[in-house]
Structures are given as structure tokens and as C-alpha cells.
Amino acid sequence: MVYKNYINGKWLSSDSKKTFDSLNPATEQGVGKFQKSDKIDVKKAIKSAKKAFPVWRDMPAPERAKYLWKIRDCLIKEKERLAKIEVKEMGKVLKETRGDVQEAIDIFEYMAGEGRRLFGYTTKSELPDKFAMTVRNPVGVCCLITPWNFPIAIPAWKIAPALICGNTIVFKPSSDTPLCAIELAKIIEKSGLPKGVFNLVTGSGKDVGDEMITNPDVRAISFTGSKKIGELILKKAGIKKVGLELGGKNVIIVDKDVDLELAVEGVIWGAFGTTGQRCTASSRVVVHKNIKKKFEDMLVKRVRKLKLGSGLTADIGPLINETAVKKSASYVSIGKEEGSRLLHGGKARKIKGKGYFFEPTIFTNCKSEMKICQEEIFGPIVSIIEAKNMDEATKIANDVDYGLSNAVYTRDMKTAFDVINKGETGITYINSSTIGAEVHLPFGGVKGTGNGTREAGIEGINEFSETKAVYFDYSGKLQKAQGIE
Asked: What was the pLDDT predicted at 483?
């Protein structure tokens, strides 16, 4: 089947007259053909969003919220169908794709509630008979560029706050998961959203993304993806509001006094859930020297029982494509060359001769400076590093360019608070894995993970709105601030 772009309320073929294929990563079979859009398509979408902006901006926020409620209700009805489509196109296991759709449900529900808030604040003026406050205004046309690993949740995390704040949207999904994006667009269309408020264009970053980033009618860009592309966006965007979420090299610290069964469970979920293809994946584990051997034995024993295969039946699904398999294999070679010891896995696999599978892989005797401990792999590979105490563990944890998520398993309150206070991340978990964000809390990181913005919760509103200061002078005379006579 050939799928189309969605521009100004219509499903349209690309100006390029070209299409590309999206493949099921478990079977390597096509799931559909999609528009290979060009700059002309993007300009049409931006023009549509710009034209629709005044009407959407001027609609009261509680009225805008009604559309978000409709989208939420439709997502609930379509949850199982969407989850199975995501298994087919993206590959992760069904229980995780259900969670992906549930995140979309949750964020539309949360942001619909913000339609009754969108709070500013009031404060006292320094002058008599003068009132001071702030109000929120929408930014304008927002371009949203999203990855393939959460192909419904991450777009929803951006679309919902952008809409409730009164912005109009041009959305470019990953070319690895365009079908999931189109299914979400169909649900948004069913809400009756005014034409032009939401637009979707499929295609490559080169052909589509560049025009989004540089077009002067675009006032905001929200991007989730690699650090390299994020840096490029900042260089090209000019004076726009730019929100970036650029991945992580996340760590679980395991103290000597913990419930090891619980810690092992957390590492397995964090390292191998979504086949390691999460920006919050637990790709490093720093373990106290007193328990390292026992922890490793327990971890390997559990991992050996994990089943590779289709996301409908297995514990671990495929990687997204062949490039991802080659990347994971290259890091296995690097790990061996650097002197770490392979405890388990390390090989690409096929199921019935097909699919982009990779064994869950564990390295030990790792050093913090090794590439496998420094670079984001985005595959099912975890590195174990020994620490003599928790002070050393915290230093190792911070010894990376990224700063998204960290976690600590401990029964010691001081250790927990040390990780909270000294850990250089935007998210911290105590006695849990590095994954599991909730939509009413901010999501994002520090250092190489982003540029200071956060998604979800009230921070999602901040990302997609501008704050205006308002002064109302009812004194009947010209009053000069700062004590000027």
C-alpha cells in the first residue's frame, strides 16, 4: 500500500513523485510505501500551518483541549491495533508497544487538562496603582522531528503540548517508522482538528529536515535524536526556539547492601528492554567490588533464558535495521580490543533466515574510559565496571559526555541522596531502572543530552509557549520605574 502526506487536511502525494519502503525488522518484509518528500512539500505544509495559526491561536485553550480529549479517547479504542502495528514496523515486544501507546494516551490526557491552566503568575509592582503579571502565548509554527524507537509516544509528547499551547504543527517522523506516524495522524484527523493545524510530511532528514530547520516561517523546532544531528540543528536554525533531546549513556549503580534479585531485574529491563534502543537504556552498570562476581553470575543466568524473536512472542525483538546490527557488532569488536571480557552474547542472529536480531550482550572488567563505556551504542550491550566504594561509583557514573538518566540500588539513604545531588543527569531513579518516565514529570537531561529544555509535565508547556510580561498602570499618570524622577 502507498501512504501519503497529510497537508492542510488532505492526504497528498509528494511533489517528488517518489516513494520509499519501510520494513518489518523481524522479517525484512515491506509494510508499505511512503512519500519521499522534498522541499516543495515541506513549504506547502509550513504555509498551511502558518495560515491556520491565527484561528487556532485565538481559540480559547479549553476549546482546544476538547480536540485533545477526542484524540485521547480514540487512542484508547485503537490501543491494541496500534500496538500490533508498532510491533510489525518497529519490532519491540508487544507489552512495550502497548506501553508506548499508553504514553500517548497519558500525554494527551495530561495536556488536555492544561487547557484549564496554562498558568502565568501575578506579582506586586514596585509602583503604586500598577498591576504586574505574566501570560503564556503560543510560539507559532512548530516543526517536530522524531525518532523511530518510540514512534507513537515521542510524537505525542511533542504534539499534545504544542497543540494545547495554540501552535500549529509540521511533523516529520523517522523514515524507519512512518506507518506508526500516519496511523497517529489518522487519529488526529478524526478529532476534527481545523485544517492546517496539524501536518505530516515523510521523507529523509536531508530532503525534509533541512527546510524545516531553516525556513523563516518556522518559529520552533523540537528534535529527538542523535547528538550529532542536534548540534547541526543548532548551527542551522538561526533565531528560533529549539528543543533537543539527544540520547544518553545511562548508568545503574549497584551498592553492596542491595536485594540482588531486584537489581538484576532492573538491569535486564533497562539494558535489554526495547533491545537497548532507548535514550534511557542502562548501558553501564557500576557494581561494588564486594558483590560483583555474584551479581554477574546472577545476571548471566537470567539473560541466558531470554528469547529472541518476533515482538509478538519473544522477550527481545529485533534491532531496527541492518545498520544497527552492524553498529552493535562493531562495538563488540571494540570492547574485545579494549580488553574487556565478554560474558554473554555478542553475535548477530537470524530467525528462520530473516531479521535484524542481536544477542543480549554483557561485558565485564570494563574501564570507564573505554569506548563501549563512553559512546551511545543503541543496542543490547551492557558494560560492567567495578567500584571500590560509592564515591568512586558516582564519579564513574558522571564520567561521560551525556547526562540523561541514572539509577542506584541501595539501602543507604546517604548513598541515595549523594546520587541525587551529585549525579549529572536530568533524571534519577532510586531502587529502579533508568527507564520509566511518567508524563506529568519533566523528561530531559544535561551536558551532551540536550540544550536545557525538557519535555512532558509543565516543562512541555514551557517548551511550546512564550512568556509575556504585562504591566497595567491605572494611576492616571506617567509613572517611571526604577525610581527615575
From this structure: 83
Q: All 3 cell numbers of residue 242?
A: 529549539
In one-letter notation, the amino acid at residue 270 is: G
Q: Could you tell me if 154 and 55 lie in one domain?
A: yes
Supply 55's cell numbers.
484561528
Average pLDDT of the residues in 153-163 = 98
Buried residues in 95-125 as b, exposed as e (16+ CB within 10 A): ebbbbbbbbbbbbbbbbbebbeebeeeeeee
Alpha helices in 7-60, H assignment, sequence order: 39-58
- AA letter at 169: I
Residue 378, domain member (yes or no):
yes
23, 143: one domain: yes
Using alpha carbons, select from 380, 458, 460, 442 the residue that is nearest to residue 149.
380
425 and 461 inside one domain: no
Q: State mean pLDDT over 148-154.
A: 98
Strand (E) positions, 246-305?
A: 250-254, 282-288
- Measure Cα distances from 242 to 213, 239, 256, 449, 462 in Å: 9, 9, 42, 14, 12
Domain count, the chain: 2
Pairwise CA distance, residues 158 & 461, whole Å: 10
Q: Residue for cell digits 544535561?
A: 446
Tens digit of each residue's pLDDT (9 = 90 or more) over 183-230 = 999 999 999 999 999 999 999 998 899 999 999 999 999 999 999 999
Reference 103, options 169, 64, 149; nearest CA is 149
Give dist(CA 236, CA 145) in Å, integer: 15
146-154 average pLDDT score:
98
Per-residue pLDDT of 392-414, as tens digits, reads 999 999 999 999 999 999 999 99
**Beta strands 218-224 and 141-145, pairing class:** parallel
Which residue segment(s) compose the domain that 41 sits in? 5-246+450-470
What's the whole-number average pLDDT of the chain? 97
- Going by the DSSP 8-state scheme, the letter that residue 58 receives in this structure is H
Paired strand residues for 34: 20
Whether residues 130 and 256 fall in one domain: no
Interval 424-443: pLDDT, tens: 999 999 999 999 999 999 99
Indicate which residues carry an active-site annotation: 245, 279
Residues 259, 220 share a domain: no
